[in-house]
Design goal:
Number of strands: 8
CATH superfamily of the largest domain: Vaccinia Virus protein VP39
Number of domains: 2
Structural class: alpha/beta
Largest sheet: 8 strands, mixed
Strand order of the largest sheet: 3-2-1-4-5-8-6-7
Mean pLDDT: 95
Radius of gyration: 18 Å
CATH topology of the largest domain: Rossmann fold
CATH class of the largest domain: Alpha Beta
Helix content: 25-40%
Shape: globular
Length: 263
């Protein structure tokens, strides 16, 4: 059974705004001051809610997404900020030559919130992001590790048992896809979930990619209870136990979210 935010764009936007204000922005501020004039770039901006708290602090923001309908929703929700020149919203591929030419070396902060797990060829994508950073810029990543109970994003399924059954996304591809078909999920949903299975990212693999990209982890926080679950399930965010965070592989199964800043 899909949650309300999966069906209502305004609900998603409001949750993005509050989550960004309460968790994302304060996390980034631990390693990078955010002041008027700070330049912020969000990849996979969706409805644009993550950017609003930054714009309200005087930042100059750019949000990009490949889904034209989501950019249109974002332009509606952020109409005032767009008109005032605080936020620019674009439906474009960041690999386009003209996009790179325009924004190369322009940003103090790049944000990827619940995005990296959707991106193919992450080994090439993460170092590519460095093109858009200023010399002292930083990148924020927030994502659910693949092996966590709902790391396959199966919570978007419409059939209740398919949306609440944990860990079945780690089954072999044919078995996972077969269960989704058995649940009567739409082909579009199944395709999306199969893409996430193909791009699955663990804590260890992410850190390995960061290191291979010539970047360093500046700050990290693992969560037992994802901050976004406050809106989805009424659960209060809870940081992961330090002992669990220190155990490779095992930590992925019971860590529902990780935050990183790298630079």
């Amino acid at each position: 059974m899909a949650l309300k935010q999966h069906l209502d764009d305004k609900v998603r936007f409001d949750q993005q705004v509050d989550n960004s204000l309460s968790y994302v922005l304060p996390f980034i501020e631990q390693t990078k001051p955010i002041t008027a004039g700070t330049t912020v770039f969000e990849v996979g901006t969706a409805e644009g809610g993550v950017l609003l708290p930054f714009a309200n602090k005087g930042c100059k923001c750019v949000g990009v997404d490949l889904a034209p309908e989501r950019i249109e929703f974002a332009k509606g929700f952020l109409e005032k900020e767009v008109k005032e020149g605080k936020i620019e919203l674009l439906c474009q591929n960041i690999y386009d030559a003209d996009f790179l030419s325009r924004f190369k070396g322009q940003f103090d902060i790049i944000i990827l919130k619940d995005v990296i797990e959707h991106v193919p060829n992450q080994e090439a994508f993460v170092p590519y992001l460095k093109n858009f950073l200023k010399p002292d810029g930083q990148i924020f990543f927030g994502f659910p590790p693949w092996y966590m109970p709902f790391g396959g994003h199966q919570q978007v399924c419409r059939k209740k048992w398919a949306s609440v059954l944990p860990w079945y996304h780690i089954l072999p591809r044919f078995a996972y896809k077969g269960l989704l078909k058995m649940a009567g999920e739409h082909d579009v949903v199944i395709t999306e979930l199969m893409e996430i299975k193909d791009t699955q990212i663990t804590i260890e693999r992410f850190e390995k990619i960061v290191k291979a990209s010539g970047l360093k982890v500046l700050h990290k926080q693992h969560y037992l209870i994802n901050p976004i679950y406050k809106y989805k399930f009424g659960l209060q965010p809870r940081k992961q136990f330090s002992l669990i965070s220190a155990i490779p592989f095992v930590r992925n199964f019971i860590t529902t979210c990780v935050y990183y800043t790298v630079g």
